[in-house]
Amino acid sequence: MTCNGGFEACCAGEVAALGGKPAGQGKGFVLAEGPYQFMYVLNRFGRTFDRVFIEMTSANVASEDVVSELLAGCDLGLLGHVSSVTLGADEFVSRIRPRWITQLSSILPRKFGSEGKIRMVRGRSDVSLSLSVDGQRVSLYADTTGESLNFREYRVYNHPSSIRPTLAASLAILAKPQGGVLYDPFCGGGTILIEAALMSSANPTHFRRGYKYQRFVDFDPKVENLARPAKAAIPGFETIMGTDINGVHLKGCRKNLMAARLPDVVVALGDSTKTVLTKKADVIVTNPPYGVKGAKLNRVSLLNSRFLENLPNTLKEGGRAVVLTSDFESFKRLLKAKVFRLEDVARTLHGHLWVEGIAFSLIAS
After folding, report:
1. Which of 105, 107, 141, 170 is at 20 to 30 A from 318, Cα to Cα?
2. How far is 54 from 72, CA to CA, in rounded Å?
3. Which domains are seen in the chain, by residue range?
4. pLDDT in tens, 191-249
5. pTM of the predicted model, to two decimals?
6. Alpha-carbon gap, residue 172 to 195, rounded angstroms
7. Helix, strand, coil percent values for the chain (each to nearest 5)
8. Pick from 33, 112, 42, 99: which is nearest to 66 by CA?
9. Rounded CA gap, 229 and 335, in Å?
């Protein structure tokens, strides 16, 4: 699976909950083992990753003829009728072994069919293959997904500073919730609320879409329909709620909640620096304004400070919070000066900014 770089542990945690066995990870990807039909579960129920690849074949990187060894152990006919092919590669192959790409690009058209009828293309294609090296093995993977799993049909309203849904789901896992009340004080378009609600109930990620694996020769729609995750990636919640200071965004949030079929999620106007909850949250997961679009850079630190000052009014003692911010060094200094304990940190590139998901807890008095 390909995922948000820096949040591989969250992706691996979701894979394990869904029923797979994490088998390693690298920058922006997680390896997993499982039965062939687990591919259906990953694509239909996974929320923290963008694409699912299956290993077609592998070879030793020290082999005299890596490309021939790869193709000898691979039945590309299983990928179904093909008229165009895309071939990608990881950083090691692209920089150190580019000849493997050149050799495969010249051979693959003949492997899939008569020469001249199969096109090697960039962008969309019937089949997407990728070369990747892990230790002493180089593997040829086939994309089973197609359009990125990051796309969500429920997003009928797009917040101008919206968070990637796969990253929102990763933050929910980073929070390590144990049920109870989940609260997002900067709910914006509602992505974090929706991802947490749907993930905790093990609902399918998409309502309607196709997948590349449905073109494969051995695709079985009955098996696909019966494939289910072992359990939800996070426990269910008693209450899921959010507030936002902007009425326009809150109206858009409600539209997204209805599109996601989540009428029970409660949202209301509220200032995160002043809100007092009668029933405090067990876990807070949020994405405050940051960067050029979300807030002026010289105001981010002030907002974070005021937010943390008010947090004991919204989070239970011993409760856990996860905040995504580009002002992460300043935010962590604020935590040390207040009644919080830093628990975990994950850094990734979100758009053009480096951000950190910072997990911390409110120290009981």
Report:
1. 170
2. 17
3. 2-143 (3.30.2130.30), 165-204+231-362 (3.40.50.150)
4. 999 999 999 999 899 988 899 999 999 999 999 999 999 999 999 999 999 999 999 99
5. 0.91
6. 8
7. 35, 25, 40
8. 99
9. 37
